[in-house]
Design a protein that fits this description.
The protein has 354 residues and is of the alpha/beta class. Helix content is 15%, strand content 27%. It has 2 domains: 89 residues, 3-Layer(aba) Sandwich (Udp-n-acetylmuramoylalanyl-d-glutamate--2,6- Diaminopimelate Ligase, Chain: A, domain 1), CATH 3.40.1390.10; 226 residues, UDP N-Acetylglucosamine Acyltransferase, domain 1. The radius of gyration is 26 Å and the shape is flat.
Length: 354
């Protein structure tokens, strides 16, 4: 569907200039844009690339001389990436809406809301509830008594296990697994892991008399709040007795692991390959960077930022920025890193003096 430059600008709350009736069919990087694309040249670094493509209109940075850039029309938005969010939503292809596939297996006791799409080879278990206007992709598995809220998008291959409850407008990308059993095992006698913690690694560890791991079953399920999005191949494990929780508005990237009994607050970001171990509490508006890890049974305060690759081994107060392994305050980490970089030169200087 084509949109005029004028209509796009109005939808974004931005200003349009020039030939605002030009029709736009898609968005593109400047160098590959065609005449019907809106080029995204939101910083001066992309200005020269406009000449390599065929765009007639572009989103440009504030103060840009768009006419000198060879454009017939331009949109100037005060916050470019926010405009990009609105623009991509506007130009995205709609999800297919073909009703309930004859190849779906739906238990007679399941309650299906109005205007629900269920794809081929999806399985809906006994007493499951699917809210109005929800979209269920192909090969989705929804277990018995699972509740899916209104206006949800459950993409291909998602697995929702027993005890899972989704709020409204939840988006689960392909192959997300919610509600699998937590990684929770115990030995008859204290294990080597327990001994290592107790002794801080002092003394040799030996084989226990009974090395078998006894499984602790997960009975608590998972509760996902409204407007949560979870990326492809991520997992949220069920709680042991109480539910694992993910707060409203939180966004979880692909390949993220959220362990059993974890509580994640509202409007958090968990980036790719992050892991949160069992029974940890993550506050509100926390950002967990890519490949960051948080140990079990910790408390992370509100408004914390954990830098990429950080490993958190102790509680973090609210408002902190943490980096490194083990994670420390950002300023402390940077000072230590600078000192480490200077160490070879310092040792050479000392050797010359001796």
């Amino acid at each position: 569907m084509a949109h005029s430059v004028k209509d796009i600008a109005a939808a974004l709350g931005a200003e349009a200039f020039g030939a605002v009736d030009l029709l736009i069919e898609g968005a593109s990087e400047p160098a590959t844009a065609t005449a019907t694309d809106l080029a995204l040249a939101m910083t001066p670094a992309y200005g020269d690339a406009l000449a390599l493509g065929g765009a007639q209109a572009a989103v440009v940075w504030a103060g840009a001389d768009w006419q000198a850039l060879g454009l017939k029309a331009a949109i100037i938005a005060p916050r470019a990436r926010l405009a990009m969010a609105g623009l991509t939503q506007m130009l995205d292809r709609p999800l297919p809406a073909d009703g309930i596939s004859p190849y779906a297996a739906i238990d007679p006791s399941a309650r299906i809301g109005r205007n629900v799409r269920i794809g081929a080879f999806a399985v809906i278990g006994p007493d499951a509830v699917i809210g109005d206007n929800s979209w269920i992709g192909d090969h989705v598995s929804i277990a018995a008594e699972v509740a899916v809220g209104t206006d949800c998008q459950i993409h291909a291959g998602v697995r929702l296990q027993r005890g899972t409850r989704l709020g409204a407008r939840v988006i689960l990308q392909p192959n997300v697994a919610i509600g699998g059993d937590g990684f929770s095992f115990v030995t008859a006698e204290p294990s080597n892991v327990e001994l290592a913690r107790e002794t801080l690694g002092e003394g040799a560890l030996t084989a226990p008399a009974d090395p078998r791991w006894h499984r602790i079953h997960s009975l608590g399920g998972v509760v996902i709040g409204d407007d949560v999005e979870i990326g492809a191949n991520s997992c949220v494990d069920a709680g042991t007795i109480r539910a694992t929780q993910v707060g409203a508005g939180t966004k979880i990237d692909s390949l993220v692991q959220v362990g059993h009994n974890v509580i994640v607050g509202v409007h958090c970001l968990l980036c790719a390959q992050a892991g949160v171990a069992g029974s940890t509490v993550i506050g509100d508006r926390v950002v967990v960077g890519g490949k960051a890890g948080v140990a079990d049974n910790l408390k992370i305060g509100d408004n914390v930022v954990l830098g990429g690759g950080s490993i958190v081994l102790s509680n973090v107060p609210a408002g902190r920025v943490m980096m490194g392994y083990p994670a420390t305050k950002m300023q402390t980490h940077i000072e230590g890193y600078k000192a480490l970089r200077r160490l070879p030169r310092t040792l050479r200087d000392l050797a010359k003096r001796s």
